[in-house]
Here is the input.
Amino acid sequence: MEQKQHLGIVLLAVMLAFFIGFVFGHQVETRASQTTYSPGAPSDVNMDPVWRAWWLLDEKFVSSSSSAPLSAEERVWGIIAGLANSYNDPYTLFLPPQASKSFDEELSGAFGGVGIEIGMRDGILTVIAPLKGTPADLSGIRAGDLILEVDGISTQNMSIDDAVSTIRGEVGSSIEFTIAREGEQEFLTIEVVRDTIKVPTLDSELRSDGVFVISLYNFGGTAVDEMRNALRSFVQTGSDKLILDLRGNPGGFVDAAINTSSWFLEAGKVILIEDFGDEQERIYHRSTGRDITQDDWNIVVLVDGGSASASEIVAGALREHGKAVVMGEQTFGKGSVQELVQVTPETSLKITVAQWLTPNGITISDGGLTPDYVIELQREDIEAGRDPQMDTAVQYLLTGVFALPAAASTTDATGLEAGNDLE
Here is the structure.
């Protein structure tokens, strides 16, 4: 049975919670396939240059170091990796034996690492989100940080797979990141001690002002059950004001995104569109009709640059069907589908096979989603422990008016001025 997992975000496991791409990643989904393709050499491709290069290297190459020579098998893996890289897609890659094994371990949900979700943005290794309560989170790594070096090793031209291998290490050992962060004049050096990473899923609370908050940290294996329980608690409180906080949520299983959206949408409503390009018909994924919403409910979805794939699916669907207002910051923009195909019993290819579109046909991967109201979280807010995004969402639900806290800044994506009545 296939499991769809968003790898849109590739979960750096040791560093990540889902290898992703985005992995649990990644995260939006990865389909597992055991099919082994062996149709033989393509008839319309001249493979002679490949074998000529093989023999020339075999004959002439002299190592500049004392490292052991590559085996024939390792060279074959290199050829396949180069072929995958030629597609110029950071989420299409070859997993040699060790990487394939590590990928399987990451899907178990607990592993040794620092707890950070990464992806590629403009060819630069970028933090999608640190996972709540993990060493990366506690050490001050933030969504949007650009990882320039890992333990002094440059990440330029480093694939996500290579980054995972570089960052992986023994629990209790330390690793040093060189970070470029917007607003900082100099590079930051952040040391993180590896630990066993257990991926958190959800927190919920009824605030004293009557607003119910569900903070969903990923769309992993337990997300469906935990979301059901949280919504049951919300209904039992009698509150009509809900905040679904998807900030820093890198994604996970696409089925969990469909299930979550179905709690808010009538049966048959389109949640997302799977676009395979010009050669195949689109697939429309629709609500299963668990809709529990009432006419007097008011819902805000909070997002930021760490919200990716499955998070973007849910936010886009609820907004475009008029069920929620989206506030926060531009989302990451990871809306592609990967299929995991076995090459040999020990190796596999992760191949991008489709793109996700919102119900209105907006491509998620094309820069992410822009909230109805863009509320920027400033460094001063973080250092002072303020959360103007949450505060603004709460005030909106309590008053029906969009009004920013004095210290916050915003871009009004809808054309309304801050302080205007939104009703």
Observations:
- The chain has two domains: 4-36+71-197, 202-335+355-412.
- The radius of gyration is 22 Å.
- The domain at 202-335+355-412 is CATH 3.90.226.10 (2-enoyl-CoA Hydratase; Chain A, domain 1).
